[in-house]
Amino acid sequence: MPLALLALALGAFGIGTTEFVIMGLLPEVAGDFGVSVPTAGYLTTGYALGVVVGAPLLAVLGTRVPRKRMLMLLMGLFILGNAVSAAAPVFGVMLAGRVIASLTHGAFFGIGSIVAAGLVAPQRKAAAISMMFTGLTVANVVGVPAGTMLGQQLGWRVTFGAVTVLGVLGLLGIAVLVPAGQAGGPDGAGEPGRGGTRSRIRGELAAFRNVQVLLAMAMTVLGFGGVFAAITYIAPMMTGAAGYAAPSVTWLLVLFGLGMVAGNLVGGRLADRALMPLLFTALTALALVLALFVFTAYDKVAAAVTLPLVGAFGFATVPPLQKRVLDQTADAPTLASAVNIGAFNLGNALAAWLGGVVLDAGAGPTSPNWVGALLAGTALALAVVSAVLERRGGAGEFTGPGSAGRASTAHASAGTGARAVQTAAVE
Description:
The structure is a single chain. With 427 residues, the chain is mainly α. The chain has helices spanning 3-20, 22-33, 37-40, 42-62, 67-87, 91-118, 125-154, 156-177, 197-206, 211-231, 234-242, 248-271, 275-296, 300-315, 318-328, 334-360, 367-392, 404-414, 418-423. Helix 10 (211-231) packs antiparallel against helix 15 and helix 12 (248-271) packs across helix 15.
Protein backbone atom coordinates (compact mmCIF):
# COMPACT_ATOMS: atom_id res chain seq x y z
CA MET A 1 0.00 0.00 0.00
CA PRO A 2 1.24 3.55 -0.76
CA LEU A 3 2.66 5.57 2.14
CA ALA A 4 0.04 8.23 1.43
CA LEU A 5 -2.54 5.85 2.89
CA LEU A 6 -0.67 5.99 6.19
CA ALA A 7 -1.04 9.77 6.23
CA LEU A 8 -4.78 9.43 5.63
CA ALA A 9 -5.00 6.76 8.34
CA LEU A 10 -3.18 9.05 10.79
CA GLY A 11 -5.68 11.82 10.13
CA ALA A 12 -8.50 9.31 10.60
CA PHE A 13 -6.92 8.18 13.88
CA GLY A 14 -6.98 11.72 15.23
CA ILE A 15 -10.56 12.29 14.12
CA GLY A 16 -11.72 8.99 15.61
CA THR A 17 -9.98 9.73 18.89
CA THR A 18 -11.49 13.19 19.31
CA GLU A 19 -14.97 11.92 18.40
CA PHE A 20 -15.16 9.16 21.01
CA VAL A 21 -12.71 10.13 23.78
CA ILE A 22 -15.11 12.73 25.17
CA MET A 23 -17.45 9.94 26.33
CA GLY A 24 -14.92 8.81 28.93
CA LEU A 25 -14.09 12.35 30.07
CA LEU A 26 -17.56 13.84 30.54
CA PRO A 27 -17.40 13.79 34.37
CA GLU A 28 -14.05 15.62 34.39
CA VAL A 29 -15.24 18.20 31.85
CA ALA A 30 -18.54 18.72 33.67
CA GLY A 31 -16.75 19.20 37.01
CA ASP A 32 -14.23 21.64 35.55
CA PHE A 33 -16.89 23.88 33.99
CA GLY A 34 -19.43 23.46 36.78
CA VAL A 35 -22.15 21.96 34.58
CA SER A 36 -24.13 18.73 34.90
CA VAL A 37 -23.03 15.57 33.10
CA PRO A 38 -26.15 15.66 30.86
CA THR A 39 -25.24 19.22 29.89
CA ALA A 40 -21.69 18.11 29.15
CA GLY A 41 -23.27 15.46 26.93
CA TYR A 42 -24.03 18.23 24.45
CA LEU A 43 -20.34 17.97 23.51
CA THR A 44 -21.19 14.59 21.97
CA THR A 45 -24.48 15.70 20.43
CA GLY A 46 -22.94 18.87 19.02
CA TYR A 47 -20.17 16.85 17.41
CA ALA A 48 -22.61 14.44 15.75
CA LEU A 49 -24.75 17.28 14.39
CA GLY A 50 -21.63 19.06 13.15
CA VAL A 51 -20.66 15.96 11.17
CA VAL A 52 -24.07 15.76 9.50
CA VAL A 53 -24.09 19.47 8.62
CA GLY A 54 -20.41 19.83 7.76
CA ALA A 55 -20.24 16.85 5.40
CA PRO A 56 -22.28 18.35 2.53
CA LEU A 57 -21.21 21.97 3.11
CA LEU A 58 -17.48 21.35 3.04
CA ALA A 59 -17.83 18.71 0.32
CA VAL A 60 -19.37 21.35 -1.95
CA LEU A 61 -16.31 23.51 -1.27
CA GLY A 62 -14.24 20.45 -2.10
CA THR A 63 -15.61 20.45 -5.63
CA ARG A 64 -13.75 23.74 -6.21
CA VAL A 65 -10.44 22.92 -4.52
CA PRO A 66 -7.87 20.26 -5.49
CA ARG A 67 -8.34 17.27 -3.19
CA LYS A 68 -4.92 17.28 -1.57
CA ARG A 69 -5.26 20.96 -0.71
CA MET A 70 -8.78 20.36 0.58
CA LEU A 71 -7.57 17.57 2.89
CA MET A 72 -4.90 19.89 4.26
CA LEU A 73 -7.50 22.63 4.85
CA LEU A 74 -9.72 20.14 6.65
CA MET A 75 -6.88 19.03 8.91
CA GLY A 76 -6.12 22.69 9.64
CA LEU A 77 -9.73 23.22 10.72
CA PHE A 78 -9.52 20.04 12.82
CA ILE A 79 -6.39 21.38 14.57
CA LEU A 80 -8.10 24.71 15.24
CA GLY A 81 -11.20 23.07 16.73
CA ASN A 82 -9.26 20.84 19.11
CA ALA A 83 -6.94 23.69 20.13
CA VAL A 84 -10.00 25.80 20.98
CA SER A 85 -11.41 22.91 23.04
CA ALA A 86 -8.14 22.40 24.90
CA ALA A 87 -7.87 26.09 25.84
CA ALA A 88 -11.59 26.82 26.35
CA PRO A 89 -12.20 29.15 29.34
CA VAL A 90 -15.94 28.37 29.50
CA PHE A 91 -18.19 25.50 28.44
CA GLY A 92 -19.71 27.36 25.48
CA VAL A 93 -16.27 27.90 23.93
CA MET A 94 -15.44 24.22 24.29
CA LEU A 95 -18.72 23.31 22.61
CA ALA A 96 -17.82 25.67 19.76
CA GLY A 97 -14.43 23.98 19.45
CA ARG A 98 -16.10 20.56 19.26
CA VAL A 99 -18.42 21.75 16.50
CA ILE A 100 -15.51 23.28 14.55
CA ALA A 101 -13.59 20.00 14.71
CA SER A 102 -16.66 17.96 13.76
CA LEU A 103 -17.29 19.94 10.59
CA THR A 104 -14.22 18.31 9.05
CA HIS A 105 -15.23 14.72 9.83
CA GLY A 106 -17.56 13.86 6.96
CA ALA A 107 -15.65 15.77 4.29
CA PHE A 108 -12.29 14.29 5.38
CA PHE A 109 -13.48 10.70 5.17
CA GLY A 110 -15.52 11.37 2.04
CA ILE A 111 -12.73 13.09 0.10
CA GLY A 112 -10.13 10.82 1.70
CA SER A 113 -12.01 7.78 0.35
CA ILE A 114 -11.77 9.18 -3.18
CA VAL A 115 -8.08 9.94 -2.74
CA ALA A 116 -7.37 6.50 -1.25
CA ALA A 117 -9.19 4.77 -4.11
CA GLY A 118 -7.18 6.80 -6.64
CA LEU A 119 -3.85 5.72 -5.14
CA VAL A 120 -4.22 2.06 -6.09
CA ALA A 121 -5.31 -0.16 -8.96
CA PRO A 122 -9.08 -0.40 -9.55
CA GLN A 123 -9.29 -3.92 -8.14
CA ARG A 124 -7.86 -2.72 -4.79
CA LYS A 125 -10.04 0.34 -4.18
CA ALA A 126 -12.05 -1.09 -1.28
CA ALA A 127 -8.87 -2.34 0.40
CA ALA A 128 -7.37 1.15 0.15
CA ILE A 129 -10.52 2.72 1.61
CA SER A 130 -10.45 0.23 4.48
CA MET A 131 -6.79 1.08 5.14
CA MET A 132 -7.75 4.71 5.70
CA PHE A 133 -10.66 3.69 7.95
CA THR A 134 -8.25 1.53 9.94
CA GLY A 135 -7.13 4.78 11.58
CA LEU A 136 -10.68 5.29 12.83
CA THR A 137 -11.02 1.73 14.14
CA VAL A 138 -7.57 1.71 15.80
CA ALA A 139 -8.55 4.96 17.52
CA ASN A 140 -11.19 3.00 19.42
CA VAL A 141 -8.62 0.39 20.50
CA VAL A 142 -5.67 2.67 21.30
CA GLY A 143 -6.52 6.36 21.04
CA VAL A 144 -9.72 6.45 23.10
CA PRO A 145 -8.49 4.33 26.06
CA ALA A 146 -5.13 6.15 26.09
CA GLY A 147 -6.80 9.55 25.80
CA THR A 148 -9.23 8.68 28.58
CA MET A 149 -6.44 7.55 30.91
CA LEU A 150 -4.37 10.62 30.04
CA GLY A 151 -7.30 12.91 30.74
CA GLN A 152 -8.13 11.24 34.02
CA GLN A 153 -4.52 11.42 35.22
CA LEU A 154 -3.35 14.78 33.87
CA GLY A 155 -6.57 16.57 32.98
CA TRP A 156 -8.88 16.51 29.98
CA ARG A 157 -7.17 19.56 28.45
CA VAL A 158 -4.00 17.50 28.02
CA THR A 159 -5.98 14.94 26.04
CA PHE A 160 -7.29 17.54 23.61
CA GLY A 161 -3.81 19.06 23.38
CA ALA A 162 -2.50 15.62 22.37
CA VAL A 163 -5.22 15.26 19.76
CA THR A 164 -4.22 18.68 18.39
CA VAL A 165 -0.67 17.36 17.97
CA LEU A 166 -2.06 14.32 16.14
CA GLY A 167 -3.79 16.71 13.78
CA VAL A 168 -0.52 18.51 13.09
CA LEU A 169 1.19 15.20 12.32
CA GLY A 170 -1.66 14.23 10.02
CA LEU A 171 -1.43 17.56 8.20
CA LEU A 172 2.32 17.15 7.70
CA GLY A 173 1.83 13.58 6.51
CA ILE A 174 -0.71 14.62 3.90
CA ALA A 175 1.47 17.52 2.76
CA VAL A 176 4.53 15.29 2.30
CA LEU A 177 3.13 11.89 1.29
CA VAL A 178 -0.05 12.46 -0.71
CA PRO A 179 0.90 13.02 -4.37
CA ALA A 180 -0.14 16.32 -5.86
CA GLY A 181 -0.96 15.27 -9.41
CA GLN A 182 -3.00 12.18 -10.22
CA ALA A 183 -5.72 13.76 -12.28
CA GLY A 184 -6.40 11.62 -15.28
CA GLY A 185 -8.00 12.26 -18.60
CA PRO A 186 -7.40 15.02 -21.07
CA ASP A 187 -7.70 18.50 -19.64
CA GLY A 188 -8.03 17.12 -16.13
CA ALA A 189 -11.49 15.64 -16.60
CA GLY A 190 -13.21 15.03 -13.31
CA GLU A 191 -10.69 17.07 -11.36
CA PRO A 192 -11.99 19.54 -8.76
CA GLY A 193 -11.29 23.16 -9.45
CA ARG A 194 -11.80 22.99 -13.23
CA GLY A 195 -14.84 23.81 -15.31
CA GLY A 196 -17.81 25.92 -14.28
CA THR A 197 -18.67 25.97 -10.60
CA ARG A 198 -22.41 25.66 -11.21
CA SER A 199 -21.98 22.72 -13.58
CA ARG A 200 -19.72 20.95 -11.09
CA ILE A 201 -22.22 21.39 -8.26
CA ARG A 202 -25.09 20.27 -10.51
CA GLY A 203 -23.09 17.19 -11.37
CA GLU A 204 -22.51 16.42 -7.69
CA LEU A 205 -26.18 16.94 -6.81
CA ALA A 206 -27.27 14.74 -9.73
CA ALA A 207 -25.79 11.74 -7.89
CA PHE A 208 -28.74 11.89 -5.48
CA ARG A 209 -31.11 11.07 -8.33
CA ASN A 210 -29.47 7.67 -8.64
CA VAL A 211 -31.60 5.04 -6.90
CA GLN A 212 -28.56 2.88 -6.13
CA VAL A 213 -26.81 5.76 -4.37
CA LEU A 214 -29.85 6.39 -2.19
CA LEU A 215 -30.16 2.69 -1.40
CA ALA A 216 -26.48 2.51 -0.41
CA MET A 217 -26.89 5.50 1.90
CA ALA A 218 -30.02 3.99 3.46
CA MET A 219 -28.07 0.78 4.07
CA THR A 220 -25.37 2.88 5.72
CA VAL A 221 -27.87 4.55 8.07
CA LEU A 222 -29.64 1.34 9.03
CA GLY A 223 -26.79 -1.16 9.00
CA PHE A 224 -24.31 0.86 11.02
CA GLY A 225 -27.17 2.21 13.11
CA GLY A 226 -27.77 -1.37 14.21
CA VAL A 227 -24.29 -1.42 15.73
CA PHE A 228 -24.80 1.81 17.66
CA ALA A 229 -28.20 0.79 18.97
CA ALA A 230 -26.28 -1.75 21.04
CA ILE A 231 -22.98 0.01 21.70
CA THR A 232 -24.52 3.30 22.88
CA TYR A 233 -25.97 1.51 25.91
CA ILE A 234 -23.15 -0.95 26.42
CA ALA A 235 -22.21 0.40 29.88
CA PRO A 236 -25.62 -0.09 31.55
CA MET A 237 -26.05 -3.32 29.61
CA MET A 238 -22.76 -4.84 30.80
CA THR A 239 -23.13 -3.65 34.39
CA GLY A 240 -26.87 -4.25 34.73
CA ALA A 241 -27.25 -7.49 32.77
CA ALA A 242 -23.84 -9.19 32.54
CA GLY A 243 -22.75 -8.13 36.01
CA TYR A 244 -19.44 -6.48 35.09
CA ALA A 245 -17.97 -3.78 37.32
CA ALA A 246 -18.00 -0.29 35.78
CA PRO A 247 -14.19 -0.12 35.18
CA SER A 248 -14.39 -3.31 33.09
CA VAL A 249 -16.48 -1.54 30.45
CA THR A 250 -13.35 0.21 29.12
CA TRP A 251 -11.72 -3.12 28.30
CA LEU A 252 -14.92 -4.50 26.83
CA LEU A 253 -14.90 -1.51 24.49
CA VAL A 254 -11.33 -2.43 23.55
CA LEU A 255 -12.64 -5.88 22.55
CA PHE A 256 -15.32 -4.17 20.49
CA GLY A 257 -12.64 -2.00 18.87
CA LEU A 258 -10.52 -5.03 17.99
CA GLY A 259 -13.53 -6.50 16.25
CA MET A 260 -13.97 -3.25 14.34
CA VAL A 261 -10.35 -3.34 13.14
CA ALA A 262 -10.62 -6.94 11.96
CA GLY A 263 -13.97 -6.44 10.25
CA ASN A 264 -12.80 -3.28 8.49
CA LEU A 265 -9.65 -4.91 7.08
CA VAL A 266 -11.33 -8.16 6.03
CA GLY A 267 -14.28 -6.26 4.60
CA GLY A 268 -11.95 -4.08 2.53
CA ARG A 269 -10.22 -7.09 0.99
CA LEU A 270 -13.37 -9.06 0.27
CA ALA A 271 -15.31 -6.08 -1.12
CA ASP A 272 -12.88 -5.83 -4.03
CA ARG A 273 -13.70 -9.42 -4.97
CA ALA A 274 -17.43 -9.73 -4.27
CA LEU A 275 -19.02 -6.54 -2.96
CA MET A 276 -22.70 -7.46 -2.85
CA PRO A 277 -22.17 -11.02 -1.53
CA LEU A 278 -20.07 -9.49 1.26
CA LEU A 279 -22.86 -7.05 2.12
CA PHE A 280 -25.43 -9.88 2.21
CA THR A 281 -23.19 -11.95 4.46
CA ALA A 282 -22.12 -9.15 6.81
CA LEU A 283 -25.63 -7.70 7.27
CA THR A 284 -27.15 -11.16 7.82
CA ALA A 285 -24.48 -12.02 10.38
CA LEU A 286 -24.84 -8.62 12.07
CA ALA A 287 -28.61 -9.01 12.45
CA LEU A 288 -28.21 -12.53 13.87
CA VAL A 289 -25.41 -11.58 16.27
CA LEU A 290 -27.36 -8.57 17.58
CA ALA A 291 -30.40 -10.77 18.15
CA LEU A 292 -28.18 -13.28 19.93
CA PHE A 293 -26.68 -10.47 22.03
CA VAL A 294 -30.10 -9.95 23.62
CA PHE A 295 -29.46 -13.22 25.48
CA THR A 296 -25.66 -13.48 25.67
CA ALA A 297 -25.50 -10.06 27.33
CA TYR A 298 -26.65 -11.75 30.55
CA ASP A 299 -23.45 -13.84 30.78
CA LYS A 300 -19.97 -12.37 31.25
CA VAL A 301 -18.09 -14.77 28.98
CA ALA A 302 -20.74 -14.92 26.29
CA ALA A 303 -21.03 -11.13 26.26
CA ALA A 304 -17.26 -10.73 25.90
CA VAL A 305 -17.33 -13.11 22.91
CA THR A 306 -20.35 -11.52 21.24
CA LEU A 307 -19.24 -7.90 21.56
CA PRO A 308 -16.25 -8.05 19.15
CA LEU A 309 -18.44 -9.92 16.66
CA VAL A 310 -20.84 -6.96 16.63
CA GLY A 311 -17.89 -4.67 15.86
CA ALA A 312 -16.48 -7.01 13.20
CA PHE A 313 -19.66 -7.58 11.21
CA GLY A 314 -20.72 -3.95 11.60
CA PHE A 315 -17.46 -2.52 10.25
CA ALA A 316 -17.21 -5.16 7.53
CA THR A 317 -19.99 -3.18 5.83
CA VAL A 318 -18.11 0.15 5.82
CA PRO A 319 -15.63 -0.36 2.91
CA PRO A 320 -18.18 -2.00 0.56
CA LEU A 321 -20.83 0.64 1.20
CA GLN A 322 -18.37 3.50 0.69
CA LYS A 323 -16.98 1.84 -2.45
CA ARG A 324 -20.48 1.28 -3.80
CA VAL A 325 -21.24 4.99 -3.50
CA LEU A 326 -17.99 5.82 -5.31
CA ASP A 327 -18.73 3.30 -8.07
CA GLN A 328 -22.21 4.74 -8.58
CA THR A 329 -20.96 8.36 -8.73
CA ALA A 330 -17.72 7.94 -10.68
CA ASP A 331 -18.02 11.28 -12.53
CA ALA A 332 -18.93 13.36 -9.44
CA PRO A 333 -18.14 11.47 -6.24
CA THR A 334 -17.14 14.20 -3.77
CA LEU A 335 -20.50 15.26 -2.31
CA ALA A 336 -22.07 11.78 -2.29
CA SER A 337 -18.99 10.26 -0.66
CA ALA A 338 -19.00 12.86 2.12
CA VAL A 339 -22.75 12.65 2.67
CA ASN A 340 -22.45 8.87 3.03
CA ILE A 341 -20.04 9.47 5.92
CA GLY A 342 -22.65 11.76 7.43
CA ALA A 343 -25.12 8.90 6.99
CA PHE A 344 -23.07 6.79 9.40
CA ASN A 345 -23.49 9.48 12.07
CA LEU A 346 -27.17 9.89 11.24
CA GLY A 347 -27.56 6.16 11.80
CA ASN A 348 -25.75 6.48 15.12
CA ALA A 349 -28.11 9.21 16.29
CA LEU A 350 -31.25 7.43 15.07
CA ALA A 351 -30.27 4.12 16.65
CA ALA A 352 -29.28 5.74 19.96
CA TRP A 353 -32.68 7.44 20.11
CA LEU A 354 -34.60 4.25 19.28
CA GLY A 355 -32.57 2.29 21.83
CA GLY A 356 -33.43 4.88 24.45
CA VAL A 357 -37.13 4.63 23.55
CA VAL A 358 -37.29 0.88 24.21
CA LEU A 359 -35.31 1.28 27.42
CA ASP A 360 -37.66 3.99 28.66
CA ALA A 361 -40.57 1.69 27.80
CA GLY A 362 -39.22 -0.83 30.30
CA ALA A 363 -38.27 -3.49 27.75
CA GLY A 364 -35.17 -4.53 29.70
CA PRO A 365 -31.44 -3.65 29.66
CA THR A 366 -30.68 -5.73 26.54
CA SER A 367 -33.66 -4.49 24.52
CA PRO A 368 -31.59 -2.05 22.38
CA ASN A 369 -30.05 -5.14 20.77
CA TRP A 370 -33.46 -6.03 19.36
CA VAL A 371 -33.57 -2.56 17.81
CA GLY A 372 -30.12 -3.12 16.32
CA ALA A 373 -31.12 -6.50 14.89
CA LEU A 374 -34.23 -4.98 13.29
CA LEU A 375 -32.23 -2.11 11.75
CA ALA A 376 -29.59 -4.49 10.36
CA GLY A 377 -32.31 -6.78 8.98
CA THR A 378 -33.93 -3.81 7.24
CA ALA A 379 -30.56 -2.86 5.72
CA LEU A 380 -30.25 -6.45 4.45
CA ALA A 381 -33.66 -6.16 2.78
CA LEU A 382 -32.52 -2.96 1.05
CA ALA A 383 -29.37 -4.76 -0.15
CA VAL A 384 -31.58 -7.40 -1.75
CA VAL A 385 -33.67 -4.69 -3.42
CA SER A 386 -30.49 -3.01 -4.69
CA ALA A 387 -29.20 -6.26 -6.18
CA VAL A 388 -32.55 -7.02 -7.87
CA LEU A 389 -32.71 -3.57 -9.43
CA GLU A 390 -29.13 -3.88 -10.62
CA ARG A 391 -29.83 -7.23 -12.29
CA ARG A 392 -32.81 -5.77 -14.11
CA GLY A 393 -30.55 -2.99 -15.38
CA GLY A 394 -31.12 0.71 -15.88
CA ALA A 395 -32.60 1.29 -12.43
CA GLY A 396 -29.65 3.27 -11.24
CA GLU A 397 -29.49 5.82 -14.08
CA PHE A 398 -29.96 9.50 -13.42
CA THR A 399 -33.22 10.87 -14.71
CA GLY A 400 -31.63 14.14 -15.73
CA PRO A 401 -29.41 15.03 -18.69
CA GLY A 402 -25.68 14.46 -18.87
CA SER A 403 -23.36 11.51 -18.89
CA ALA A 404 -22.62 11.29 -15.17
CA GLY A 405 -25.50 8.90 -14.44
CA ARG A 406 -24.72 6.66 -17.40
CA ALA A 407 -21.07 6.46 -16.40
CA SER A 408 -22.04 5.68 -12.83
CA THR A 409 -24.30 2.84 -13.94
CA ALA A 410 -21.53 1.40 -16.06
CA HIS A 411 -19.14 1.49 -13.14
CA ALA A 412 -21.72 -0.11 -10.87
CA SER A 413 -21.78 -3.19 -13.08
CA ALA A 414 -18.11 -3.31 -13.97
CA GLY A 415 -16.49 -1.77 -10.89
CA THR A 416 -13.29 -1.18 -12.85
CA GLY A 417 -11.94 0.74 -15.79
CA ALA A 418 -9.55 3.52 -16.52
CA ARG A 419 -12.11 6.25 -16.06
CA ALA A 420 -12.81 5.15 -12.49
CA VAL A 421 -9.14 5.67 -11.67
CA GLN A 422 -9.11 9.01 -13.40
CA THR A 423 -12.13 10.40 -11.58
CA ALA A 424 -10.83 9.19 -8.20
CA ALA A 425 -7.77 11.37 -8.68
CA VAL A 426 -6.18 13.25 -5.83
CA GLU A 427 -6.36 16.57 -7.55
